[in-house]
Amino acid sequence: MAYRLSFDPADQQIDLIHAFLSGAYWSKGIPRHIVEAAVANSFSVGMYDEDNEQVAFARVITDRATFAYLADVFVLPEHRGQGLARQMLEALQAHPELQGLRRWLLFTRDMQPLYAKLGWTPIPHPERCMERHEVDLYER
């Protein structure tokens, strides 16, 4: 199957993105309006099948000058194992608007091997990193 990669915000299919994210372990129960705002305020990429249906997504929260946070990377289960996540990540990392950033950051429960292949490393001093995290915010 042939896939198309797009950075065009108009191509992002919010209903599909919301449907996936609202069930994902990292954003369970997230309201649609929050997903819509997050996508609108991020640098996003999507992958589309031959019928122009979105099958994968990733977004970067960035100032486009010094820092980027990679979030909400997913590939629909029936399209996994074809390198789509890797293609999206490589395209993001190579995008002209995201060059010269001093630091990229992400959190992942289980995809460290994929990111390691793309040059990502564990935080060297995790004791310096802090967070303020309201785990069940969307389920209240």
Structure description:
- This protein is an alpha+beta fold and 140 residues long.
- The protein has one domain (4-139): Aminopeptidase (3-Layer(aba) Sandwich).
- The chain has 4 helices and 5 strands, in the order βααβββαβα.
- The chain has a 5-stranded mixed β-sheet with strand order 1-2-3-4-5, with helices on both faces.
- The chain is globular, with a radius of gyration of 15 Å.
- The mean pLDDT is 96.
Helix and strand layout, with pairings?
Layout: E1 4-6, H1 14-21, H2 32-40, E2 43-48, E3 54-62, E4 67-75, H3 84-94, E5 103-105, H4 112-117
Helix pairs in contact: 1-2
- Tell me, briefly, the overall form: globular
> What is the CATH topology classification name?
Aminopeptidase
CATH architecture: 3-Layer(aba) Sandwich
Strand order of the largest sheet: 1-2-3-4-5
Q: Kindly report how far apart the N and C termini lie.
A: 41 Å
Please identify which CATH superfamily we are dealing with: Gcn5-related N-acetyltransferase (GNAT)
The low-pLDDT segments are: none
Helix-strand makeup class:
alpha+beta
Largest β sheet strand count, sense and barrel closure: 5 strands, mixed
Helix segment count?
4
The Rg value, from CA coordinates, equals 15 Å
Q: What does the average pLDDT come to?
A: 96
Topology pattern, helix = H, strand = E:
EHHEEEHEH
The total count of strands amounts to 5
CATH class: Alpha Beta
Query: Which range best describes the helical content: under 10%, 10-25%, 25-40%, 40-55%, 55-70% or over 70%?
Result: 10-25%
- Please tell me the total number of domains: 1
Beta fraction of the residues?
15-25%
